[in-house]
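Dear all,

This email documents one entry for the complex benchmark we are building for the journal club exercise. For each entry we list the sequence lines for every component of the assembly. Then comes the predicted three-dimensional structure of the complex as a token string, followed by one or two observations. Please use this as the template for your own entries, and keep the labels exactly as they appear.
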Amino acid sequence: GENVEQHPSTLSVQEGDSAVIKCTYSDSASNYFPWYKQELGKRPQLIIDIRSNVGEKKDQRIAVTLNKTAKHFSLHITETQPEDSAVYFCAAFPHLWADKLIFGTGTRLQVFP
Amino acid sequence: DTEVTQTPKHLVMGMTNKKSLKCEQHMGHRAMYWYKQKAKKPPELMFVYSYEKLSINESVPSRFSPECPNSSLLNLHLHALQPEDSALYLCASSQVRGSSTEAFFGQGTRLTVV
């Protein structure tokens, strides 16, 4: 089955710096890759997603890149703010016909003022 | 309405109790999910319902029994749980594969088994 690896597990940055989180997946049939942000005690919330027919997508300070050949995708957060502090999960849908979201192991991002 | 509503928010139950978790969405989504999340871990898929039929069971112990009474409701019946089953149980929904596959999560039920 699909396996999603995520690095780093923790990331500390100074406010205003950039943060990059990387994920790799194993199933070449996966074609949808969302990123979720989960604040302490709250639900995971989608912050950005990308489909396999696109190489990059940007939404204000957040961008995601996808390399299908290498089977990896990355989240980029620029001009980080303390409210960006949370756990970030990447995910992949492993099959075209199944509705099954597989999560990476998570990255705890801390942004220090 | 982009809400997935879960009840209760907190639940404490003994190992001999029977309880149920409830999930409701009115977005017309035809795929609904149960996830289990332990502290500092990612959500772990338990069950997937597609068009009210169980499509995926990730080898979950039979003490967890899912039910999908209609396209808007999803239940998780709990019986004879163990302390290690204590976790945050998340419900989610999404459109069955099509133009959008974003999964919306409920706020979760924090379950404690004593």
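Observations: The mean pLDDT of chain A is 92. The first strand of chain A starts at residue 4 and ends at 7.
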